[in-house]
Amino acid sequence: SVVASELSAMGATVYTIDTVAAKADIAGCINITGKPEAEGWWKLKVDAIVPCSASGLMTESMVKEMNTRAIVGASNLPFDTATTQKIAESQGGFAGPITFIPEGVTSAGAVIVDSVEQYDPTVFAEAKPDELYAFCRQAVFSKTASLAGLVSAGKNTTAALQMPTLLANTAASNKGPIGLGFREWKDEKAPSPVTAQVSRMALSSFSSVPKTARAPGAIMNARAMSTRASDSKRSFSTGAPARRAMSTSASQTADVAICGAGIMGLNIAYHLKSRDPGMRVVVMEKAPSLGHGSSGWSTGFMRAFYSVDDTMRLALDGIRAYKNWGDYTGIKQPRAYFTETGALWMLGKSKADNDVMKERLSSFGVKSDVLDEQGLREKFPTMNTDPYPEYNHDTGDIIDKDWGPNSAVFEWGCGHLDSSSCLEDMLEACQREGVEVHFNTAVDSVLQEGGKASGVKLADGRMINAGAVVNCMGPWFNNLNKTVGITTSTTMLPTRIQVGHVNIETEDLLSMPFTADSYGASGVYFMPRRANKQLVFGSIDHRFESEVVENPDDFPTHLDKDVEQDYLSCLLHRLPTLPTSGKVIGFSHMYTVNQEDVHPVIGESQLKGLFLCNGFSGHGFKLSPAVGSMVAQQITGVKAASGTRIAEWETSVPLNFLAADRKALNLKVKTHFA
Questions:
Q1: In the β-sheet with 14-17, what is the strand arrangement from edge to edge?
Q2: DSSP state of 640
Q3: What is the reported pLDDT for 364?
């Protein structure tokens, strides 16, 4: 199932088949189990066949009827005899000779990890699982692509015949055992979790790969597979969580239909299914894979500092889950991990105001310090503590203004996680519990009957009847509400947010905390990502957060040059040692910003049975575990039973705190850091 879902996320059309039909029901794939074409699956015209099965699956007669140019081994030897393999490679079927890439090339993770552990035990002990996985993935991509290139370039040759050349080329290009290369790769490449996006980038970097191998259609005997290192051995499982297929019939039934597979949709589904295993929870996502909406672009920053007490409680509930991510998700070795940095709130407030904030944080069990200019310089010597000046835009002259003394709050315990890793972990946790998550499944409208939401209609015309519908579609939220005439008491609009990052190397910058800087006329945040050796920066000022997106499917995704210059001017003032050379990498994504109070709406709408979860204005990711609990309580009417694992993660924030019909909260400053 891992191989199938990865191929689908990379844009391939993937057919799956298994002796147990439910195991071949994989998000984004076409399950042909039980259908007429399954009787002769090997005859289908595809770019590649990926057998994830027991040995001996393919016979000589099957090979001669195949209509593919490649067989990619994923586990075990697929041919029943050596003669069958020889016929496949020399003669093949209707498409001619078949290139066979053996499992020893395409799946060598355990060997690579063993090499790292043996030859560089120090870096192995410090490495995160995702870093090792990413290193293995890149090495395997390189090897597979090189072998495919050798076969493609040669005449009357096979992968088996080219293996000595591959080994010789590898030996000539390597300075030593592959494990010795991990440390340098880790430092230079700043690995991120292995996702379909990373896979696409890695594959596209190998020019020797034939074009037919770049976007393969594949048919697979689907089985669950784990490539986690455990006692230095790969672990293969032929079991997979039983999941009901998304039926192709005109209608079907679910207990809860969740629209949107971002961090909110997955957390809500997880809480619902964990408290009631018998509940059928279906999540529908129009994108082909995780992370295409706001969740995938989140910085994943966690903090407790909010101006509203109940928001602070939600944040602390969320932080507790993220800091204990393995316990929360039930995953022994999760991809995501918490990196603590602390947070510096340099917001131009007086010492008296900051003393009050310190007391508030303390009342919630959060440690903080109030720092004056001297304290700031002692704690962060590289930082300039002067106010960022305000300029006359017509003349360029500095406007003389008294900004008052610099006073800031340092909040302990803040930090970040990788948002893509969190999404992948949540998907795994949901599917383990039995949640059905379907990608490439766009929701067209909400169905209603008798004054109550009764399900959803999909873009392809299918209906899903449901007892409750949850709209957590992020920037597309209003489009779905309009199908049943739903409005809220506050206005939430998709808003373009611009973010950039630069590479940093020196310890003075890498050791900086997350900093929100609005002392003077500044209005930026910056946060070092030590693992990537990057300084990420963005906005905390309304002047950067006012561009409403009319069409969430069509908006500029770059960092505007004038905004980039504004950001850099603020950064270079505050961080004088920041390099002035080097490339700025930037992008734009979307928040859904509540125009009245930058807080979300969470709860049942005017249409009974339709629950809304939107308008998080940039702080949704950190709240999502608690929001999952809140919505699950709203739908079921009860908290999880005492003694169940999910009960430990329930929030006690009043369920009507952020109701859809609430009055706007009274805030002094309207930014997503309010």
A1: 30-31, 14-17, 218-221, 48-51, 70-72, 99-101
A2: P
A3: 95
Query: In the predicted model, is pLDDT for residue 412 greater than 90?
Result: yes
Residue of higher predicted confidence among 539 and 204: 539
Helix axis angle, 309-323 relative to 620-636, nearest 10°?
100
Taking CA atoms, 360 is separated from 220, 319, 372, in Å, by 57, 17, 19
HEC string of 364-390? CCCCEEEECHHHHHHHCCCCCCCCECE
Q: Is the pLDDT of residue 64 over 90?
A: yes
Mean pLDDT of all residues in 455-471? 95
Is residue 604 within 8 A of residue 486, CB to CB? The reply is no
Query: Mean pLDDT across the chain, nearest whole number?
Result: 84
The C-alpha angle with vertex 76 and arms to 73 and 77, in degrees rounded to 5, equals 75
Main-chain dihedrals φ then ψ at residue 588, nearest 5 degrees: -120, 145
The CA-based dihedral angle spanning residues 297, 367, 326, 28, taken in that order and rounded to the nearest 10 degrees: -20
Helical segments of 298-418, H only: 309-323, 325-329, 351-363, 373-379
Instruction: Identify the band that residue 674 occupies on the pLDDT scale cut at 50, 70 and 90.
Output: low
C-alpha distances (whole Å) from 184 to each of 107, 120, 171, 179, 443 are 22, 11, 18, 10, 45
Q: Whole-angstrom Cα distance, residue 68 to residue 11? A: 18
* CA 575 to centroid of chain Cα atoms: 30
CB 443 within 8 A of CB 259: yes
Q: Give residue for tokens 């290193």.
A: 135
What are 547-562's pLDDT values in tens digits?
A: 899 999 999 999 999 9
Task: Give the pLDDT of residue 641.
Answer: 86
User: Is the separation of the CB atoms in 555 and 566 below 8 Å?
Assistant: no
Range in 226-240, 258-272, 435-449, 620-634 with the lowest mean pLDDT:
226-240
Separation of alpha carbons 45 and 95, rounded Å: 9
**Bridge partner list, 100:** 71
The kind and range of the H/E element at 258 are strand 251-259
pTM (whole model) above 0.85 = no
- Cβ atoms of 515 and 531 within 8 Å: the answer is no
